[in-house]
């Protein structure tokens, strides 16, 4: 088996043994959901406005081992979080069942995962299935685990978890649900059940990715395409051609700064900018989303926006253009050009979207200057966590050492939060989420 393939046989064996012991059943009865993390090279912060994004999964993610429980009970344990979560699939779940602090304090999805009862994602999955009229009779006995230190890092750990529970409950109940439907179900978990106003980037990447392709998703129309990676166009043999890798560089920041305005605040600012631009251009009745504003209307009326809103709108419109150019560059194998656009996108996140914190910005700059790096940016909501870079495969090790060394010099305390080998990870493209039977 390709050593870069995730999950490895030993990871699968380990989780199967744990679940078999929990349930008092045979290892062969254990199914495992592999739900990968995603990166978004271009198209940051525009999914919630109906923009077009690019994404791919990586060969890391969360594993949920499970067995249908034989009755309505759901019993869950986690490798990262304490306690046992128990509920019945017969319980009717309402968003108001959720802990209030999660809704009020939501500034990124991973924060929710960290600070709430971790079982909320499983309840959220039940909520979404019930809300769409699915009747569940089977619960699951399950064990959820992810790689140490990669939750709360902007790699979409929360969507990976939400999708994992959806797939497990659907599998246990013999429900056939398409990836597109599951994108909507995960949206219900995050937007309705947990109150985060995020877009559909994360779960779309997790559910639709195909190894070696870049996913391009129009978050307004939900149309998507998979664009083959340039090297695969030359040679269909994925093993032979690995010209690029991804670097994940961790800042060591786990908590958003207290004065951080947060994810939902940015979404509201984008909507406010859209409302002003739509009113000014005679479309006041249209939904206040920046994707409903024509580029020409934006250019004509942007002077009506106060400075902060003008920056959010500038990020949206410039990022859409970068996505268009980036898809062309990717499809024609111009990785240097693709990389430059990623770096420009990172800069716009800093200057226009105004997310990030000083250490994250410094880490971004170090990555941009690392040997062999085509381009870099913050990952995810960008309020903390990690940066990603696209790097020439031949220079990946050298670049990773450079980043570790330089970040250590300016932030020894933050850098010490990570075990040396985990501070910068070298990853490859992954597959979509799936249920693995034994
Ligand atoms: C988080 C959100 C996504 C998206 C990204 C930023 O991951 O969950 O919907 O907005 O941030 O691109």
Q: What report would you give on this structure?
A:
With 438 residues, this protein is of the alpha+beta class. The chain folds into 2 domains: 9-225 and 431-436, Ribosomal Protein S5, domain 2; 230-427, Alpha-Beta Plaits (2-Layer Sandwich). 41% of the residues lie in helices and 18% in strands. The protein contains 15 helices and 12 strands. It has helices at 9-23, 100-104, 109-115, 120-131, 157-172, 179-193, 201-208, 230-234, 263-280, 295-301, 307-331, 335-351, 358-368, 396-410, 412-415; strands at 31-39, 52-68, 73-78, 85-88, 140-145, 213-218, 224-228, 244-250, 373-378, 386-392, 424-427, 434-436. Strands 1, 2, 3, 4, 5, 6, 7 and 12 form an 8-stranded mixed β-sheet that branches. It has a 4-stranded antiparallel β-sheet with strand order 9-10-8-11. Strand 3 (73-78) and strand 4 (85-88) form a beta hairpin. Helix 4 (120-131) crosses helix 5 and helix 13 runs antiparallel to helix 14 (396-410). The site of alpha-D-galactopyranose has 13 residues, from helix 7. Alpha-D-galactopyranose binds next to helix 7.
